[in-house]
Amino acid sequence: MMGAGLCGRKSHFAKTSRDTSAALNRRVNLTASAPAPPLHLVVDLGFASRFRQGRRRVRPQVTLTLYVLTENGAKMTPSPQRQVVLFVILTFALSALFDYPIFRPQPLADLGGIYLAAVMWCPGIAAIIVLLLSRSKIASLGLKIGNPPYYLLALLLPIAYSLLPYSIVWLSGLGAVDHTFSPDLASLLLIAFPTACLRTLGEEIGWRGLLVPKLRTFCGIGTVYVVSGIIWAAWHYPAIFIGDYYSGDHALYATVCFTVGIMGIAVVSAWLRLMSGSIWPVMVLHATHNVFVQRVLDPLTLDTGSTEMIVGEFGAVYVVIGILVGVIFWRMSSRLPEPLPRSGSVAGQRRITIQ
Question: Please, which residues have CB within 8 angstroms of residue 71's CB and are 6 or more apart in sequence?
Answer without folding.
Answer: 34, 37, 347, 348
